[in-house]
Amino acid sequence: xxxxxxxxxxxxxxxxxxxxxxxxxxxxxxxxxxxxxxxxxxxxxxxxxxxxxxxxxxxxxxxxxxxxxxxxxxxxxxxxxxxxxxxxxxxxxxxxxxxxxxxxxxxxxxxxxxxxxxxxxxxxxxxxxxxxxxxxxxxxxxxxxxxxxxxxxxxxxxxxxxxxxxxxxxxxxxxxxxxxxxxxxxxxxxxxxxxxxxxxxxxxxxxxxxxxxxxxxxxxxxxxxxxxxxxxxxxxxxxxxxxxxxxxxxxxxxxxxxxxxxxxxxxxxxxxxxxxxxxxxxxxxxxxxxxxxxxxxxxxxxxxxxxxxxxxxxxxxxxxxxxxxxxxxxxxxxxxxxxxxxxxxxxxxxxxxxxxxxxxxxxxxxxxxxxxxxxxxxxxxxxxxxxxxxxxxxxxxxxxxxxxxxxxxxxxxxxxxxxxxxxxxxxxxxxxxxxxxxxxxxxxxxxxxxxxxxxxxxxxxxxxxxxxxxxxxxxxxxxxxxxxxxxxxxxxx
Length: 493
Hints:
Blueprint: H1 3-38, H2 44-48, E1 56-63, E2 69-73, E3 78-79, H3 87-97, E4 104-109, E5 112-114, E6 117-119, E7 122-125, H4 142-152, E8 157-158, E9 162-165, E10 200-207, E11 215-220, E12 227-230, E13 233-235, E14 241-245, E15 252-260, E16 264-271, H5 275-289, E17 293-294, E18 299-301, E19 310-316, H6 320-329, H7 333-342, H8 353-365, E20 388-389, H9 390-401, H10 406-411, E21 435-442, E22 445-453, E23 459-467, H11 473-491
Parallel strand pairs: 6-8, 7-9, 8-17, 9-18, 12-15, 13-15
Antiparallel strand pairs: 1-2, 1-23, 3-20, 4-7, 4-19, 5-6, 10-11, 10-16, 14-15, 21-22, 22-23
Helix pairs in contact: 3-6, 4-5, 6-7
C-alpha cells in the first residue's frame, strides 16, 4: 500500500480523534461551568442533602416587580402539588365571583299554603355553600332562622315531605381521581350541593386492651341508619392510626387501622354519607320542636323533580373572602372542593367535575398563565394525578398580586412561623413572619408557593416543590426552610 494512502488514513484518524477530544473538552467546560454556578449556592442545599438529593424538584424564585429570576431549577417540570393546588380554585373564585360573593341556599315549596297548612313539599335547595352548620365559618344558628322564616310564611303543618334538593351538582360526589385509602375520611368527604356540619362525623370508640377490637359507642352528630364494619385494633401505638372508608350515599362505613390501647373514649373522624339528608332531618326535628308538624319522613332528591315551586326564604353564606381564608390557612379540602365544583356551573347545571377542571384551565390560559402542562383532577390536591409546575404557580401568584382582589388573596395565605399550616415553617428565624404561602403535604412530599417579603421593600414570588424525597414530609420541610433562608440571606438583603 502506498505511503501516501497510509498518510491520508492517519490524517483522517487524527481528525476524528481531534473531534472527540474537542467535544470532550466542551463537555468538561459545560459541566465545570454548571458546577460552578451551583457550587456554594443555595440550591445545593436541596440538591446535595440526603433527604432531597434524589427527589423530584421543581422550583422558581422571581423578583415580583422586575421578573428577574433569583433562582430556578427545572421550573417547567410538573410535580404533584398536594394542597398547593388550592391556590387555583381560591384564585379562580376570587377573580370570577369577587371577595363579597355569598353562596345562596333556597327554602322553597310546592303546592299551596291554606289556613296554616302547606299542601305540598318543602325544599332546601343548595348551590354549593360549604359553610352550612360548619364549625369553621358561618352561623351555627341557621336552623332556628330557617324555622322562623317558615313560621312567618304562616306554615304550621306540612302535608308533604321536607326535601333536600342536591340537583345543582351532579351525583358524582366522590372525585373519581381519589384513592380508596382517602375516601370516607374527614379530609376526603363527598362534595354535594348541600353540605352540612363540614360533611364530617366523629366516631367515638372505646379503646380496650392490646389486641382487642375498639368498640364503636356513638357518632357525633348522630346519623340515622349508619352501620359500621369495624376492624380497628387497640395496639401499642401512641397516635391515631385509624381510617374510615365508605362511598357517597352509602350508610356502611368500614373502620380499619389501630388506636392506642386502654385510652377509654377515642374519637376518629369520617365523612357523612349524605349531609343534605341529615340537614333536612335536623330541620324537620327543629320544625316539630317549634310546633310545625310534618306527615312524611324527610328525604333527598339528587335530581330536580320538575315541580313548580315558590321561593320562601334565601339564606346566604359568609362572604367568599372568609371562605377562602379558611380554605388556604387551614388547608380545608372540603371548602376547596366546593369552590372547585361551582365553576362547572359556568358551562352547565348540574355542575360536573370535568366542566370545573376545563373552566379553571381555560380561564387562566386566557389571562396569560401558562397552565398547558398542568393536570387538574380536583380542587384540593388530593388526587395523585394532579400536576403543576413551579413556573405555572409563579405566574398565577404574580397575576394575583397585581389583581384588584390581591388583598383578599394575600390575606388568605398562612404566615411563616405564625399561622395555619406554616406555623412551624422558619419559626424563630429571619424569615419568621415574612413568608406568605400555601403549603402542600403528602407522603415524602412537601411544597410551598407564595411570597417572601424583603427588608428593602421588595417581594419575591416563589414555588418550591419537592416530591418523593428520601424522608418524611417534615424532614423535607426543614431542608426547604434552610434553602429559603440561605437564599434570603445571600440574595435578599
